[in-house]
Design goal:
The structure is a single chain. It is built from 3 helices and 9 strands. With about 150 residues, the chain is of the alpha+beta class. The relative contact order is 0.23.
């Protein structure tokens, strides 16, 4: 899978095979939060028990960030195509020094068939579970929580 590479300004400068990414490469990741009608945010429970955004995707060449978000979301809830709202873009530097340019979206879901790997939580529950969240989720949650209808 080829992923889009960006420069320090967030502009696409090329692409590279995911397995060939180097520590200095900046790739474009897209994070999506789905919110239920009960104002709960759907989070992903990863295999090691950590919590992440509803869906995460790597932007591929020729794909807009919204297309990446819709592709990532379709894996979670294939029966529903939510209307997504773009919340913002910014850089994130992981503890290992790897940089990624992130785009964040949210949408409302009415799906009842969300995968078992996901759980709906109130904003207070996500706040209380901070130690169980991935570092990227904590960063994004702290940056964009106030923009979510939760």
């Amino acid at each position: 899978m080829h992923v889009s590479l960006v420069n320090e300004g967030g502009q696409a400068i090329g692409h590279k095979e995911k397995s060939a990414l180097l520590p200095g490469d900046i790739y474009h990741s897209v994070f999506v939060f789905l919110v239920t009608p009960l104002k709960e945010v759907v989070v992903s429970r990863m295999s090691e028990g950590r919590l992440s955004a509803t869906a995460v995707g790597l932007n591929t060449p020729g794909e807009t960030p919204e297309q990446t978000a819709l592709r990532a979301t379709s894996v979670i809830s294939p029966q529903e195509v939510p209307q997504l709202r773009h919340l913002g873009d910014q850089f994130y530097t992981a503890a290992n020094g790897r940089k990624t340019y992130i785009s964040v979206f949210y949408g409302t879901t009415h799906a009842t068939d969300i995968q078992q790997t996901h759980v709906a939580m109130t904003a207070a529950e996500v706040d209380a579970a901070a130690d169980s969240c991935t570092p990227a989720l904590r960063f994004i949650w702290n940056s964009y929580r106030h923009m979510l209808p939760v």
